[in-house]
Amino acid sequence: xxxxxxxxxxxxxxxxxxxxxxxxxxxxxxxxxxxxxxxxxxxxxxxxxxxxxxxxxxxxxxxxxxxxxxxxxxxxxxxxxxxxxxxxxxxxxxxxxxxxxxxxxxxxxxxxxxxxxxxxxxxxxxxxxxxxxxxxxxxxxxxxxxxxxxxxxxxxxxxxxxxxxxxxxxxxxxxxxxxxxxxxxxxxxxxxxxxxxxxxxxxxxxxxxxxxxxxxxxxxxxxxxxxxxxxxxxxxxxxxxxxxxxxxxxxxxxxxxxxxxxxxxxxxxxxxxxxxxxxxxxxxxxxxxxxxxxxxxxxxxxxxxxxxxxxxxxxxxxxxxxxxxxxxxxxxxxxxxxxxxxxxxxxxxxxxxxxxxxxxxxxxxxxxxxxxxxxxxxxxxxxxxxxxxxxxxxxxxxxxxxxxxxxxxxxxxxxxxxxxxxxxxxxxxxxxxxxxxxxxxxxxxxxxxxxxxxxx
Length: 456
Description:
By secondary structure, the chain is mainly beta. It has helices at residues 52-59, 131-136, 315-321, 428-436, and strands at residues 12-20, 33-34, 62-65, 68-72, 86-89, 93-100, 107-123, 162-165, 177-184, 191-194, 226-237, 247-251, 256-261, 268-269, 274-278, 281-290, 294-298, 308-309, 329-340, 343-350, 359-363, 369-377, 382-384, 395-396, 407-410, 414-426, 442-443, 446-451. It folds into two domains: 12-290, no CATH class; 294-451, Immunoglobulin-like.
């Protein structure tokens, strides 16, 4: 992307990406990981022996560089209007509404906060003010140009701002004198400025007869002062991923856009002197990926379930065959271990469908069918996602994904927690059918599906 004086239709678009891919073996990774590559200060590895990649990483900071520069248009006054000096206004906190692209109804809020700014100020002066300068402005300055600011050189900010780090890099030789600085941005106004202790004239074409001209004849010195390498650091406060369904979340309505320029009404304002030359907007597009962990490990023999009378053993059949009472229901249990970090749904897929809540078992002899139901029980760290938030105990399963029924929420991610599914044939007519042509075998396939892609 090329920069310069461009139309309002252009915008620097930044994608801010974060993802949640939980590690149940490493509970220290339960939050989002910012996957956005920093530009600007947090991308620098050697700033006067400081590695800002590591500094920013330690503090949870990321940075965005603005692609443009601000150029001096008029004299910087002596302790005058702050907007005619080094002046910066930044937006502070933005609430970003994010929407799951797979589930249009699910929305979450993220907070984007600008915390620091950094830039390089380039000025033409070296050493002390010239005799021409002192004569023209009727002064007698003996302070070096680059230090003649309120509270010292630009790396030291003025209240309410403060210098984040000192000694980032100062060059005091050559006709162009860069001073790199990084300031904390105040949480209330977002305004930082630095007033000069002397008048700093804007550059003019060189004319040796002009006593106002205070620079050397070096062509480079005819360039005005400028602010370049401008970037800001930010922190993200993202929603709890454990409360979010799997999927991709992006800006719900419009992208977050900051206007850049020289007006109190814009978001990023450089005052009235240093005129912004670059894209008039920086636009933020948020992309959050949530991929919950869900793993089912059946226990040995769990894939085959034998239904027996209600006492849960073969003895129930023995008693019936010996003249005992007829069973009222047949039950069987399939056990498993579950690892989960988010929300999921569970439903049945029937080899032979019977109803919305039942699969069919088919007689090998008569081909008659009887309905079998399934009931899910999970560990206490998982609850039903509805107003009851009740534990999952004998939760009836349905024969297809039927939202919002049977969506379950993991309160605390855990690995290999026990669970089981109870299969049951009950009801007088079903039992009568089963026993009508004994001995006989009723069987069929029932697949239990655990699905983290709830809305797919």
